[in-house]
Amino acid sequence: MRLEYFQMIDSIEVLNSHEASITARSHVPNKSPVFEGHFPGHALVPGVLLIETMAQASGYLILALNEFSSMPFLASVKEAKLRSFVPPDADLVVKAALEHEGSGYAMTKAHIHHDGKKVCDAQLTFRIMPFPSPELERHMQTQIEKIGLRKTN
Amino acid sequence: MSNTFETVAAIISETSDIPLEEITPESNAMEDLGIDSLDFLDIAFAIDKAFGIKIPLAGWTEELQAGKAKVEDYFLMKNLCARIDELAATAKQS
Predict the structure, then answer these.
(1) Which of A4, A23, A85, A93 would give a disulfide with A113, using CB separation of 3.0 to 4.6 Å?
(2) Between B49, B57, B59, which is nearest A105 by CB?
């Protein structure tokens, strides 16, 4: 994870296109400017960044399912539950599954586990649109290669 | 059509917290009922599930943005229900 760059997913462990699900891994860094403010003397990953982490795992799933033809953008978050604190140096397992793929939008359910315990979950909705710029498309291709996103089923 | 209208009106009422009696076949979902495009994603999701179809929202949006269609073509309740009936009939055939 590079919190300050919003790079939340380190690697993809499993992409199951048949089941439309994904499992990703993320390691929370020991130090980050984010922890200087959140919170002094009690460093925690902000809940909004946990939601962003679930959104990115979902986004990579949608990207893979649409064969990287268009870009998912987070549109709504429902039933978000932040169940326990996530400290620095935590190893996270992030899972997302497609609930519904509509025309131009998709919905997922996602959750994050730490030490075998669910720390958060949410239902997410994405608008799916053409890549708005070649630069973003190139960036996403680079990210996809970096995290090892490829079909396994 | 009447069954479709009742189902769609119930979905809109529930997802957007609009009293059922305010929704008529002549209501424009966007302009009269105040549903925005984000709210409509939830409605489309529920309609897709209820009727076993995939509302072509991306295509409709493109047509609206390109001026090839008017909002009422797709979002006047009676027109929306007619489109849903067409999509459901096509889905049944395939």
Answers:
(1) A93
(2) B57
Of A18, A55, A12, A6, the C-alpha closest to A145 is: A12
Positions of A marked catalytic: 38
pLDDT digits (tens, 9 = 90+) for A52-65: 999 999 999 999 99
- The ipTM, to two decimals, is 0.81
> Tell me: domain B2-93, CATH 1.10.8.60, correct?
no
For chain B, the first-to-last Cα distance in angstroms comes to 21
Partner-chain residue, chosen from A75, A103, A105, that has the shortest CB–CB distance to B59: A103
Q: Say if A141 falls within a structural domain.
A: no
- We report the CATH number of the domain holding residue A122 as 3.10.129.10
The answer to whether the CB of A53 falls within 8 A of the CB of A75 is: no
Tokens, residue B17: 């917290």
Q: In whole angstroms, what is the distance from residue B38 CA to residue B16 CA?
A: 11
